[in-house]
User: Which sequence fits this backbone?
């Protein structure tokens, strides 16, 4: 088995060859354990799970939207060091992106208040956002 990725930003999934076709190891592990992956569904690795993991207990079926909500890229920090929080004058502005729309959560006196507001709004909008839910 070897791991490959499409770009430096793409998670590196385990792959292997079956005949003349390359297949993702986590998808094969899921299908061997639970059966065929339904049309329109994807196999998602649960948070804190390596993309090379093939343990069926760490995999779940999700829609493309749900899978995108759990991308590591969604948690990249802004210049403040906190995702979705930006300095505006002497206050902190909080916002959350979802489905191409930006939701203004408000302005806060402290970075911690703005961070918590972003976390709560993210939980509300992103149904499969396990990382933020883990802090509840």
Assistant:
């Amino acid at each position: 088995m070897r791991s490959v990725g499409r770009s430096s930003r793409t998670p590196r999934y385990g792959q292997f060859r079956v005949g003349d076709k390359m297949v993702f190891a986590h998808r094969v592990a899921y299908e061997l354990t639970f059966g065929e992956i339904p049309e329109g569904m994807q196999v998602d690795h649960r948070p804190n799970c390596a993309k090379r993991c093939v343990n069926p207990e760490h995999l779940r079926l999700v829609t493309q939207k749900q899978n995108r909500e759990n991308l590591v890229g969604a948690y990249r920090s802004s210049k403040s060091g906190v995702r979705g929080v930006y300095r505006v004058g002497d206050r902190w502005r909080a916002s959350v992106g979802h489905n191409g729309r930006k939701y203004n959560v408000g302005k806060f006196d402290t970075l911690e208040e703005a961070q918590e507001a972003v976390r709560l709004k993210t939980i509300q909008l992103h149904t499969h956002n396990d990382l933020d839910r883990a802090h509840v």
User: Anything to note?
Assistant: The first strand starts at residue 2 and ends at 4. The two ends are 38 Å apart (CA to CA).
